[in-house]
Amino acid sequence: MDEKLKVYNTIQESSTIGIASHVNPDGDNLGSCVAMLHALKNLGKKVYFLDNDEVPEDFHFLDSVKDRFSVDSFPAALDLLIVLDSSDFERIGESHSKLLEISKTIVNIDHHRSNQGYGDYNLVMEKATSTGEVVYDFLTTVNLPITEPMATALYTAISTDTGSFQYDSVNSKTHRIIADLYDKKADSQLVVQNLYQSKSVEKVRLMARVLDKIEFFFDGLVAFSSCTQEDLNETGAKSSDTEGIIEQIRNIKGIELAVFVKEKENLNRISLRSKSFIDCTKVASVYSGGGHVRASGATSYDSLSKTKETLLKRIEQVL
Ligand SMILES: [Mn+2]
């Protein structure tokens, strides 16, 4: 039987279902979760959307995105847990071991090449632009209706994970899906205004500060910048306000690879974006990270300066 039908059957047989995004949730992640949440609720299921990390304010416009539960308020047992946009199970955060314990069945829906296939059922499409596209493919295959809030959520997922349809993963299929989402009343203007035209002053000031300290390496092919706790304190910006900065760095003329490191309390989050020939996953792997050829991430437990040094050495090897 087709994996999608197996997932559909499992959903039909389940009454309590958990949905998990990854930590540091992005538009694809949250949009996919919200679309799935509605699909399940429309089937009469009791759904628990895991609250595992702060949702950036930009995404609060998404219907149901704040309707989340801490793992402690989950039922003692879940018939099914659906994990979206997470290449490994640990990415869903601290509560992963508890969720593994209480979930009878796990479904893994993703598009990352590095996906570990940790689910009992795995819907992983490496060529898909986004997890949103995988969710769309699933819903349409098993004939589950896509309502207006679902269409807007899937539009958010696909448009954010393609950099507003600029990435080379975009093809005619992507646009056919988007056309269908417009027919299903996706509110693209709501997405545009909330995601691209609603930046806080603090966020813009943080962006200016981070952009101001960009350093260039390897004859200007590589750009590096970082955000420290001090940057956040002095601008009054929130940790999630760094979202989108890496793209600004990549957009500089002549840059092939943009590297951005965000200092957290005991660790550093690394983001990588490339334009045409550097495989970001090869750079991310130095800190056991992964993702896509043009966009990857990793976590380092070294100091910020040591992390920078290690990344630059790795980039030299990859070049
Ligand atoms: Mn994604």
Structural account:
Helices cover 39% and strands 18% of the residues. Helix 2 (27-42) packs parallel to helix 4 and helix 5 packs antiparallel against helix 6 (172-183). The strands form 2 sheets. It has a 6-stranded mixed β-sheet with strand order 6-7-8-9-11-10, sandwiched between helices. A 5-stranded parallel β-sheet has the order 2-1-3-4-5. It is of the alpha/beta class and 319 residues long. The protein has 12 helices and 11 strands. The chain has helices at 3-13, 27-42, 96-102, 131-141, 148-161, 172-183, 188-196, 201-212, 229-235, 245-250, 280-284, 304-318, and strands at 16-20, 46-49, 78-84, 103-110, 121-124, 215-217, 222-227, 257-263, 268-274, 290-291, 295-300. The site of manganese (II) ion has 6 residues, from loops.
Which residue ranges are poorly predicted, with pLDDT under 50 across at least 5 consecutive positions? Answer: none
Strand order of the largest sheet: 6-7-8-9-11-10
Helix content: 25-40%
Approximately how much beta-strand content do the residues carry? 15-25%
Bound molecules: manganese (II) ion
Characterize the main sheet.
6 strands, mixed
Give the C-alpha Rg.
19 Å
Q: What is the structural class?
A: alpha/beta
